[in-house]
């Protein structure tokens, strides 16, 4: 029947839209990420043997190794060995780096402008490997590792040094190059040159061997990081390995998908290991012949990914006699990544399907902050701007749903009077036509707004600016869940207010369906969302956005329900000023 089919179509589309919203939140807060196709393919291609260490697997063979007998895990240099040996210290404008001469590896890389805790004095250290774990910046030459090579600091900026270690600080707009020399276990000489710039998170590593490796073997550079299982958060996909393949396609692999051992991931332009706010990225540069490494490799793989226990690693390849690499170790700030070089590192920030919307919204958030100097106020202003821009669509959807609601008694009367399905369809269609109603008119404007909602959601979820950014009162970190301590119990006040606003919004929204079951389902949705937000807390910045969005939506619907109040556009402007003003007053308390 046309009557039933039209109404059913409307219900279906409304349900689809609702399911999309639920699915987005559900996937973000409850479900572990689905195992990626790349990981499944890799499991079929590579044989992983429990107990085989990454350093015992030859990268040139792409980890296709089967052990005939159990292989014992290597004994990595422990804390006593590292602290008992020589170390050099380098301080730049952005980071403070400690390099152990045992393996010439970075054992500490502290970001000067980012602290461990809000308001604290301890800088965030991107190196958090436990005692007995391998440290970043390891070099593999075929099957040989430089982990236990006792390097000598041969020169600084090309000048020989008399002391065994140095403590240096970069001058403005300058760089420091430390050259380490050593000998691999097989007797092959190795030189590792590490160059830091004063004002950049990007530094370079040049590796050269005294003897060329056999055909099919390459020099590899490795980065490692320790992620305890308790810290892995698959529901927010906060920790992952990312790589940009040779076809400029970005891949985000959750760490929960990385198996023991290592394996090749094909030709890649760079590989990154990090979380939602910080990362370390290895970028292969050029080999001695001047050709791109990803073209010159005989192994067919320029990236390797794996783990050893809770220590995750990624490797990128150089040539058979030398390797030149760039390394980015720092925050995932879009502007910084975009202008740091022609590497397209900004693509490591996962803004989802609607990144083309999330990115300009992220930029707008940043510029609003420049005016209001508070990211909570910037979120309020951004939400109000988006709702104002989307008001014509919201009004069209509201008007369509109200018209559908108004004709429900007449449709019910037609059903009771006409029993013939064909005649009922004709009469229903004629009724819609007389009233100027498009049964799908309430859904399409909402569907158009969903990408904007999702784009703003992703922008706020990935905004580095919100880390440790306070708003007002008890909300001191917009990147963390908010809770007001009352008698020793943390109460998520904004989440409860958000649930209340959703209930009020349901009351003020016309329901075009006379189906009591559907009406009850819609009224239960606020409670379901509130429960999800309480069980799986979301960042305070996202909850603030949702709360403000609901408040201004309720205001708009009140004006649209009663036109005697005045123009909905005027009402939106007045309400926006009041909401922003209230937010500003809260920041003063």
Characterise this structure.
The chain is of the alpha+beta class and 589 residues long. The protein folds into two domains: 2-24 and 357-588, no CATH class; 46-348, Beta-galactosidase, Chain A, domain 5 (Distorted Sandwich). The chain has 15 helices and 23 strands. The strands form four sheets. A ten-stranded antiparallel sheet has the order 8-7-10-11-12-21-18-17-14-15, with no helix packed on it. Strands 6-5-13-20-19-16 form a six-stranded antiparallel sheet, with no helix packed on it. It has a five-stranded mixed sheet with strand order 4-3-2-1-9, with no helix packed on it. α12 runs parallel beside α14 (540-561). It is elongated.
For the structure shown, list the relevant keywords:
15 helices, alpha+beta, 2 domains, six-stranded antiparallel β-sheet, ten-stranded antiparallel β-sheet, 589 residues, 38% helix, disordered N terminus, single chain, Beta-galactosidase, Chain A, domain 5
